[in-house]
Each structure stands twice: as C-alpha cells, then as structure tokens.
Amino acid sequence: MSSPVRKRMRVFAGSNGSGKSTIIKEIRKFVTTGSYINADDIEKSFRERGFVNLADLQNIILFLDALYKSQLHKIKATVIYNFF
C-alpha cells in the first residue's frame, strides 16, 4: 500500500541579492517545481502595466484553495498590497 501524496509548498526567503531567484532557476532546470511566484516579478509587472493582473496568480490561488478544501492544513492567508 502506498502512502498518500502530500501537497507541499516551498518558500525561499532571504535578503535582497542573496541568491533566491538564482537557486530556484537552477533547481527548475532539473526538477518540475509547479507554480512559482516571485514578488519581484509581480512588482515589475505592476510597474510596466500599472496594475496587477490577478490571472497571473491563478495557479497559486488554485493551489491554496485546494489545500484549504483538503482539510489537511488550516490556512490563514492575508494579502497586503503596498504599492507606492
């Protein structure tokens, strides 16, 4: 009997310029990582377009929704937009 598949979320955190994006780009060359969200990419898109297209975040929203509905984890999510 095989174990049930567990959904996981990996978060890379660190100061600016510490290499988070570089590491994930290298990992993604060898491993399928699923959804990937980079706050710098969201900010760049906002500055170029003048708005945040929530459709760009659809994969992570669907993931969090499925995780919430699975009752495996309790999620409390707060979204804060600080655009100046």
How do you describe this structure in short?
This protein has 84 residues and is mostly helical. The chain is built from three helices and no strands.
What can you see in these coordinates?
With 84 residues, this protein is an all-alpha fold. The chain contains 3 helices and no strands. The chain has helices at 20-28, 39-49, 58-69. The longest helix is centred in the C-terminal third of the chain and has 12 residues, at 58-69. The radius of gyration is 15 Å and the shape is globular.
Q: What's the end-to-end separation, in Å?
A: 54 Å
Strand content range: under 5%
Q: Please give the largest β-sheet.
A: none
- Count the E strands: 0
Mean pLDDT: 73
The portion of residues assigned to helices is 25-40%
Q: Outline, from the CA principal axes? A: globular
Number of helices: 3
Helix and strand pattern: HHH
Unreliable segments of 5+ consecutive residues: 73-84
Radius of gyration, taken over Cα atoms and rounded to an integer in Å = 15 Å
Q: Given the helix and strand composition, which structural class is it?
A: mainly alpha
